[in-house]
Amino acid sequence: MATYMASLSFGESKTEETHGDEKGNWKWKIRKEIWDKLENKEIADFPRPVHHRIPNFKGSQAANDNIASLPEFQAARCVKVNPDTPQKHIRYLTLLQDKVLLVPQPRLRTGFFSQLSRSNIPFNKLNYACTQAGVQQYGVPIGFDDPLPKVDMIIIGSCAVDPVSGARLGKGEGFAELEYGMLRMMGVVDDNTIVVTSVHDEQLIQGIDTLRLLKHDVPVDIICTPTQIIRTNTQIPKPTGIYWELLSPEKLGQIKVLQHLKRKIEKETGQTLPLGASELLPPTAQKNRSTHPRSTRRRLYDESSSKKETEKGGNIQSELGESGSEKLKNSHFQKFDLYVSNLKFGISPETLQSCISECAEVCQMKLFQKKGTAFVKLADTSLTDLCISRLHGTDLVERKMRVKKFC
To answer: Does 282 fall in a domain?
Structure first.
């Protein structure tokens, strides 16, 4: 991130220089402060490290429960929620309360939105439907030209938010702003559409300079933390659409739906839309390396060792002993597809299942928290290796993870 922050060429800096901010790095300084604080204070939760993410945090479920208690949420019929982990619980509650759920395609890389309704999802799959893999399975893809219901509430993740002004900073990639702008262009949201965010109390930053915000930045009306509900009564204007003059060629090149929309508008108007200055796109979150302060004492993943263990099916015999390994082969645990050991002490079933569900649907799981072991059965055994790779890229393990495939 230091290299990125030192650059003068990314989109935010070029525009923000006009406001007198040296190099335009003020947003990134705040983001780094928040990411570091959440990690150092052990507030951060899976997936970690939280740098360059909408950070998940301990207490996210309580914050989302506060959103669900809002009269505006109770009255809403259609809710748009970002696809990030800290907002997973509110996606579940949205479906549970029989509302229409709109979820953007991650990073808008494969499409626009997915629409989910409880009537199309088995009740025991509601939680899974809130994961990335579940949205792909149960969501109905929505294109820019497809009809959408009026959106009654927008729930977005944040890196930092000002409880007084409602100013919000995301992770720096601008997807929430683009999603909001496209919904405005479709006519399904307006200035009166409530924008809500759920964050930890440590993500509240007073004094964000609203004069430095850009016109595409989306302010929030309501902030929900694990301990409080804050109505900001924000006076910051909400974006009215997509500001093409602020959109860099690099960002446009990432998003097919925007390319389609630009061509459509240019064809209809006969005019070429302007684009913003070239930018160095921000780095994405690290998946295979931890910046956890105790990482020197807790090796999370040794690539060569893990690859060797995966190819061999894991050294389960050395862990259980010769008789224990033979007993395992003949036990009822054989019906599972994966045996995982060296998991972090006290890891919750929800956390482990959420991680695996990003790659495959979990049919059954037995987790022994004190032993740090788990048995997992997948709906599709062809995704077993993908799940193993996903687990290797997390901080859910105390030491080198050991895995045995039964399938």
So the answer is: no
